[in-house]
Each structure stands twice: as C-alpha cells, then as structure tokens.
Specification:
Protein name: CGNR zinc finger domain-containing protein
Radius of gyration: 19 Å
Order of helices and strands: HHHHEEEEHEEH
Structural class: mainly alpha
InterPro entries: ABATE, ABATE_dom_sf, Znf_CGNR
CATH topology of one domain: Jann2411-like fold
CATH class of one domain: Mainly Alpha
Number of strands: 6
CATH superfamily of one domain: Jann2411-like domain
Number of helices: 6
Strand order of the largest sheet: 1-4
Helix content: 40-55%
Shape: globular
Largest sheet: 2 strands, antiparallel
Amino acid sequence: MTVNFPLIGEPLALDLLNTRPVGAGDLIAGPVGLGEWLAAQAGRVAPVDGVGAAEVAAVHAVREAAGPALAAVRRGERPPAGALRALNAAMAAAPAHRELVWGEGLAAPERRAAAPALRLAAELAEAVAELLTDPRVGEVRECEGADCVLLFLPANPRRRWCVASACGNRARVARYYARHGKPGQADAGTGAGV
C-alpha cells in the first residue's frame, strides 16, 4: 500500500506534524508508513536501513513533543516543559559530530554513532528545534480549508491553504455554490480529503 502524503516540502518539522491529516489517520502509524515517509524525505533525513517498531516509537515521541511546543511558540508562549525535555533528550541520545572523509575531495559530513531509532529521533528533534528557534515560526499557519489541520510556512503572506489545488479549490467551489444559492451543493466537488 502506497501512502500519498498530503503536504511534503515544508520545513521537516512541519512535514512530520502533517503526517496526521484529518480523515486519513496516522500516516506513519507503522513501519511501512514511516518507511514511505522517510523515502519521501530522501535527502533531508539520513537513510535508515529497515524501519521497525523502535523507529516508529522514536519518531512518534518526537512528533508528540513537537506539536505542543510549536503551538505554544506560535502563540508567543513558553513551550511545555515536558515537550522541551523530550526534544532535548532525543537530540542528546544521538549527538552529531563531523568526520573528515576523502572522496572526490575533502568533505566533513555529519555522523551520529547511535542506533537507527535514536539517530532518526535526534535528526527530527533537531529539525523541530530549528523551526522553534526560526524567527519566522510565528508565520506558521494552519490551512484555512474546512476540516484541514495541515501546517505550512508560507512563502507568500497571502497563502491561505496547504495546497491550493486541494483545499483552495474546495473553498472556491463552496463559495461559488453559496453565492449562487444552490442549497446542499456547498460540499460538491470536494473530492477526497487531504
């Protein structure tokens, strides 16, 4: 079964939080879904050889801490202490260090000496930390689409929907039917949920 992730390409922390869209359940509830999400994030997260229950649990722990932390910071409030502890613990469990290697030239890639689940959790927790400390964190928005909870960081301040061709289209169709007085048609053309 292949999962179509509703929104990919936002900051990594938002992509992680967006793995629980309304009506679709938890897209990374198990190893297959998490493996597919990691494949969709290729180049943004170090590859993981085999995704199992430990990786799923570690990623879920980061996501559970990221949500309340981001919600608080967006409101200009202090994040819950438990969320900060969880994110800090994930980062501390697999600290990163640079390692000089010679290939087609000298490079210094980041390495983590830890089990795959700890390494993955640390990478995602660092992505959350980057977002929480980004000066633009207050600009993170929730999609204005009906029943949509996806988050995005708009490049354009006028952006209102996670995906204009999905939630934006549904809103335009609903407005059209509302203007033209066709009762019961406000939901027409909505198609499948995001």
